[in-house]
Amino acid sequence: MTLGLSHNAQWVLLSTLILGTAAGIIGCFAYWKRQSLMSDALSHAALPGVIIGFAILGVKNLPVMIAGAAASALFGALIIHWIRSSSRVKEDAAMGIILSVFFGFGVMLLTFVNRMAGANQSGLDSFIFGQAASMVSKDVWLMSGLALLVLFIAIVAFKEWKLFLFDAAFAKGLGLSSRWMNSLYMFCLVLVIVIGIQAVGVILMAALLITPAVSARYWTNSFKWMMVLSALFGGGAGVIGTLLSAYGKGWPTGPFIVIAAASLFVFSLALGIRKGLLVIGIQQYRQRRQLNQPSVQNLHLPERGGSG
Amino acid sequence: MLPVLSVEGLSASYRKNKVLDNVVFDVEPGTMTSIVGPNGAGKSTLLKVILELHPRLAGKVAFFGSPYPKVKSRIGYVPQRGSVDWDFPTNALDVVMMGLYGKIGWLKWPKRSHREKAMEALAEMGMADYASRQISQLSGGQQQRVFLARALVMDADLYFLDEPLAGVDAATERAIMATLNLLKSRGRTVLVVHHDLQTVEDYFDHVLLLNRSVIAHGPTEEIFNESNIYRTYGGTLRWRGARSG
Fold first, then answer.
1. How far apart are CA A240 and CA A22, in angstroms?
2. What are the entry keywords (chain A) (predicted)?
3. Residue of B nearest to A168 (CA)
4. Which residues of A touch B85 (CB under 8 A)?
């Protein structure tokens, strides 16, 4: 199946599939750590690092820019943590500050760097809204490799992640260090963000982390299946978005990926078999009908005995 | 005999408030102790500091004569029910299995024998029919029993329970006390943060009266009297003796 795509575009498609899968899984972790917004703050905070990475070398070199993005995102995380623990400012406010300041700083740097010779052709702008088509095969390999690493960490330690996310204090009692797991989580989250920003862009990267997990929640009551579904939704959104943008000339990928993910969310919200709107509506309708048909039994006998 | 738990000069604070001040006590093996005191007396904090879940300012804690990290696997902890998000997508059996993760080994998958062990613990708590029930659909009492079953499978020598009887129904209270008594009869040691003064004498053979530091500690019949309780609670108490009056 070639879908009328060039050889390069097919590889790009594969890499956004793997990226979306990894983002879906790490998004599940972020969801249960109540850190969905944190992923948004971190992806915005990655922008200055990308630009500085470019400015240092003067050419587009993805490993260096990814390293810069990671450093700058982690620096942002550090400041958020510091603001929260050493001042009266709450975490959401701290994230709001870091998100906008880092992004503003990044755009400012971008304006300067774009005046440098050859910078206009570098495709730096694509890091804001994402441009999967601008990736060359080396980028594709790097991105896929790192995404597979994240997938591996998530699957191999599935049992540990579940315990850590459900009850970190109990996990610690069993010898599973919270500090270690938190660091590993942060490592995976930042890794997914920095490898995703070229394809999806810093502004919209968080949507690929948050939306699949939220959608998956409407379909299952098992953590394993939530991870699997979130991975499928993320991967699906990555592929659909990349395909759509590939059919236009120079269309940004990020918005299409996000719209694909959001469509899956609306679908899940309406039809999801757990807490989906349709299911809840039917349940309420049935209950109301039962109440409206009074019988002697319903009035006098409780439905079931025993302790609740 | 070597005490199961030995706490020496333990102090801890939350932000600027010192909530524990020079706490000293020893716990003998095979005893069932209730930790009793007013709100904000530091009961839960005491457990958390002992189990290294909250930093201590000063003091020493020894379990079976060893520091905590060496004997982790011999200690079972049942946190307050409200400490986790019960909306987490998992079922009762799965939560009980978590108590076995240390035995299963890190990065390894549970086997059928582990599953059977977890089922046994659920059955012991009268929860066998609820094994595959989503934890968000359990009542408060049932959630508490799941937590206790998770501690049971650990097969620990020393158990810490944080308010296990708070807000549970009568059936759960009976099931939990039966289990704790069973543990005691097997020579295990149990410490329970408890809030109901009326039941202390019926349920526990030892009492630790706590209000930032230890007010009194010892066998219930010797310690649990009006003057000690008054010293613990100050003027805030309205209590008419459970057995005497």
1. 16
2. Cell membrane, Membrane, Transmembrane, Transmembrane helix, Transport
3. B84
4. 32, 166
**Cα separation, A84 vs B210, whole angstroms:** 32
End-to-end Cα distance, chain B:
37
Contact between residue B32 and residue B184 where contact means Cβ atoms under 8 Å apart: yes
Q: Structure tokens of A113?
A: 């760097």
Chain A to chain B, count of Cβ pairs less than 8 Å apart?
77
Name the residue of chain B whose CA is nearest to A153's CA. Answer: B107
Tell me how far apart the 2 most distant CA atoms of chain B are, in Å. Answer: 57
B90 CB within 8 Å of a chain A CB: yes
CA angle A154, A44, A8 (to 5 degrees): 65
User: For every one of its 308 residues, what pLDDT tens digit does chain A have, with 9 covering 90 and above?
Assistant: 556 778 888 888 999 999 999 999 999 999 999 998 999 999 999 999 999 999 888 888 889 999 999 999 999 999 999 999 898 899 899 999 999 999 999 999 998 888 876 656 667 888 888 888 888 888 899 999 999 999 999 999 999 999 999 999 999 989 899 999 999 999 999 999 999 998 899 999 999 999 999 999 999 999 999 999 999 999 999 999 999 988 877 788 889 999 999 999 999 999 999 889 999 999 999 999 988 876 545 555 454 544 43
Task: Please say whether the beta carbons of B240 and B57 come within 8 A.
Answer: no
Task: Count CB neighbours of B223 within 10 A.
Answer: 17
**Domain A7-206 indexed as CATH 3.40.50.150:** no
Q: Measured between alpha carbons, how far is B61 from A134 in angstroms, rounded to an integer?
A: 60
Measured in degrees and rounded to the nearest 5, phi and psi for residue A293 equal -115, 75
Q: Cα(B37)–Cα(B209) distance, rounded to whole angstroms?
A: 6
Hey, is the C-beta of A176 within 8 angstroms of any chain B C-beta? yes
**Burial (Cβ within 10 Å: 0-12, 13-18, ≥19) of residue A192:** buried
Q: Tell me the Ramachandran region of residue B175: left when phi exceeds 0, alpha when psi lies from -120 to 50, beta otherwise.
A: alpha
Spell out the residues 6+ positions from residue A106 whose beta carbon is closer than 8 angstroms to its own: A44, A47, A48, A50, A51, A202
**Can you spell out the DSSP letters for B209-220?**
EEESEEEEEEEH
- Which neighbouring-strand residues pair with B63? B5, B66
Return the residue in A159, A184, A217 with the most chain B beta carbons within 10 A, the one to mutate for interface testing: A159
Contacts of B180 (CB under 8 A, 6+ apart): B32, B159, B161, B190, B192, B203
Any A CB within 8 A of B55 CB:
no
Q: What is the ipTM of this complex?
A: 0.91
- Indicate the burial class of B80 (C-beta count within 10 angstroms; 0-12, 13-18, 19 or more): middle
Residue A47 near residue A128 (C-beta atoms within 8 A): yes
Evaluate whether A33 touches A157 at the Cβ level (below 8 Å). no
Partners of residue B76 on adjacent β-strands: B159
pTM score of the predicted model: 0.90
Question: Which of helix, strand or coil describes residue B76?
Answer: strand
Sheet holding B206-211, edge to edge: B75-78, B158-162, B189-193, B32-36, B206-211, B213-219
